Amino acid sequence: MAGSTFATGRRTLARLLAPLLCLALAGCASTPLRGTGDLGVVIERASGSVQIVDNSHAQSLARVQGLGDLSHASVVFSRDARYAYVFGRDGAISKVDLLAARLVKRVEQASNSIGGAISSDGRVIAAQNYSPGGVKLFDADNLQLLSSVSTAAFGGGESKVVGLADMPGNRFAFALYDSGEIWLLDASTPSAPKVQRFEHIGKQPYDGLASSDGRYFIAGLYGEDGLALFDSWHADAGVRRILAGYGRGRQALPVYKMPHLRGWSIAGDYAFLPAIGQHEVLVADNRSWAQVATVPVLGQPVFVMAEPGGRRVWVNFAFPDNDKVQVIDVPTRQVIKTLQPGRAILHMEFTPRGDAVWLSSRDDNKLLVIDTATLTVRRTLPALEPSGIFFSSRASRMGM
Amino acid sequence: MDSGPVRRGLWLLVLLAASFCQQAAAAPPAEPRAGELLQLLHKDCGACHGLSLKGGLGSPLTPQALAGKPADSLVATILNGRPGTPMPPWRPFLSEEEAQWLVQLLQQGGAR
User: Fold this and answer.
1) Domains in chain B: ranges and CATH
2) Chain A residues within an 8 Å CB radius of B55
3) Residue A35 within any structural domain of the chain
4) Which domain holds residue A170?
5) N or C end: fewer C-beta atoms under 10 angstroms in chain B?
6) Cα Rg of chain B, angstroms
7) If you measure CA to CA, which chain B residue comes closest to A46?
8) Sorted alphabetically, which InterPro entries does this protein's record hold (chain A) (predicted)?
9) Which of A89, A300, A302, A364 to mutate against chain B (most B CBs within 10 Å)?
10) Exposed, middle or buried: residue A60 (CB in 10 Å: 0-12, 13-18, 19+)?
11) What distance in Å separates residue B62's CA from the closest CA in chain A?
12) ipTM above 0.95?
C-alpha cells in the first residue's frame, strides 16, 4: 500500500525504496500467516478483558483489555471470522481483531444491554437493550449508528428486549419481556427498518433462539409453562404456544438464574429445551413441536446444548448447582454422566466438529477442555473469572 | 488481577463507617462469610441485577433505585422472593440478619 503512494510521485526514489520496504514489511510480519477458523474469544467478566484462544491446540494466544463491564457479555463474529463483536452489559459494543489481538473500535450505545446479532449479509450489527429498551442497528464495518427501533414506540411503556436472533433475509427476531410480544425486524434497508409485531405471545418471555436453519424463532416464557413458536415460513399464521403446561400444576421451583436458549439445542429429530421452575430438560419433536419426553436433571438447567453431531446434549445449571454439568444421550434420553468440573460453570462451547467442549469455571478462574469421546479433561487453562466462550465457527451459523 | 481482597476490605470500611452513622445497623457477618456474601451479591444476584447491580432483567439495586423503600420490605423481598416475578426466595441461603446487612449495604451504596 505504501509502495503505491511512492510510485505516484518520484519514480526513481520509489524504485530504490521498494525493495527496502518489502524487506522491512517482511521483517515486521514475522508471525506466520494463519486462518481464524479455530480461534475463539473467552469473556473475562470482571476484568473487562477477553482472551483470544486457539481451539486446535487448546491454548490462549492473547488478552485484549479495556472492554468495560462484561457481565453477561455475548459475542458475534464478522462473516470473514476475522472480527469479534463483543456486547457488554454496560451497553458498549467492542470490535476485536482476532488476528491482531487488538480492540479496533468501541462504541457505547445504551446504558444497559444484553446482546446482539449480525445480519445475514454480514453488514449490520443489531444490539438489544434493556435500558433504554429497544434495538439499535450499526454498520458492521465502522459501528456507525444506522437506526434505532424503540420498543416504547407503540405505547404501553418501554420494554426490555430479549432473545435477539438473526433470521434469513437480513431480518432479526426478538421478544419483549414486559409486554409479551415477538417482533420481526426487517433490516434490508437498515436506515429505515420495518417492524412486524406479534402480540400476546405469552407472559414474560425471558430469552429466545432461532433454529439453525433460520426458520423458527422460539421464546421461552417465565410467566407461564410453555414456549412461544414463530414459524417465519408462515408468518401470517402468527405465534403459537408449544410445550404448554409442562409443569402441569406442579409447584414451580425457585429459579436462581434464568436459562439461556441460544445454542445448538436441536439434535436430530428433537429439540431439547430447558424447563423453567422444574429440574427437567424438555424434549420436543422438531416438526410437530409436540412434547415427546422430559429428562430429569439435577437442577435448574441454564444452557442445554447439543454437540454439533447431535448425539449428546450437555446441560449446565443455575446456582446452587452451578458446579455440575450433565450429559444426556440423545437416543435413550438418559443422563449418562454427571461431571463436577469446577465452581460456577457458566458456559460451554463445542469445537466446530465437536471433538471437544470448552467449559468456563468462573469461581476457579479456569477453562476446561473436555474430550467429548471420553468425557475426560484434556487440559485446563487459566482465565480471570471466565464466562462466555465463543468460537469463530459461529460466523457461518444462523441464529448464533 | 483479582481485586477481591482489596474490594472486600473497602466494603468493610464502608460498612464500619455506615454502621456508626445509622442506628440499628445490621452487624456485618464475621469473615469469611462477609466476603462470601459480597461474592454472592455481585455474582449470583448480579446474574439478574447486573454485575454492578445497575439492573438487568431484575431492577437496579443502586442506592438511587432503592431510595425511600422501606428496608423491611426489601429484606422480605430478598428472603421470600417476589411471586409473579423472577425474583427468587433466598431464605435457603441467607439468614434474616444477612439479608438485612445486604439491604443496608445496597441502600447506602457500599456495594459499588
Assistant:
1) 4-108 (1.10.760.10)
2) 112, 130-131
3) no
4) 109-242
5) N
6) 13
7) B51
8) Cyt_cd1_C_sf (IPR003143), Haem_d1_sf (IPR011048), Host-pathogen_enzymatic-act (IPR051200)
9) A89
10) middle
11) 14
12) no
* A60 part of a folded domain: no
Number of domains in chain A: 1
- Nearest alpha carbon to residue A55 among A38, A69, A41: A38
Taking the model in full, what pTM does it have? Answer: 0.88
pLDDT at A197: 95
Q: Categorize the per-residue pLDDT at A155 as very low, low, confident or very high, splitting at 50, 70 and 90.
A: low
What pLDDT does A109 receive? 80
d(CA A128, CA A212): 20
**A72 interaction partners in chain B (CB closer than 8 Å):** 47, 50-51, 56
Q: Is B12's pLDDT higher than 60?
A: no
Q: N- to C-terminal Cα distance for chain B?
A: 18
User: Hey, are the CB atoms on A72 and B88 less than 8 Å from each other?
Assistant: no
In a domain, A193, yes or no: yes
**Mean pLDDT of all residues in A50-74:** 93
> Is B51's CB within 8 Å of A89's CB?
yes
Tell me the residues of chain A between 240 and 259 that have a Cβ less than 8 Å away from chain B.
254-258
Q: Is the pLDDT assigned to residue A267 strictly greater than 80? A: no
Q: What is the CATH number of the domain that holds A201?
A: 2.130.10.10
pLDDT of A300-354, one tens digit each? 999 999 999 999 999 999 999 999 999 999 999 999 999 999 999 999 999 999 9
pLDDT tens digits, one per residue of A100-143: 999 999 998 877 777 899 999 999 999 998 877 899 999 999 99
> Do A86 and A73 contact (CB within 8 A), yes or no?
yes
- Tell me which residue in B3, B55, B57 faces A258 most closely, judged by beta carbons: B57
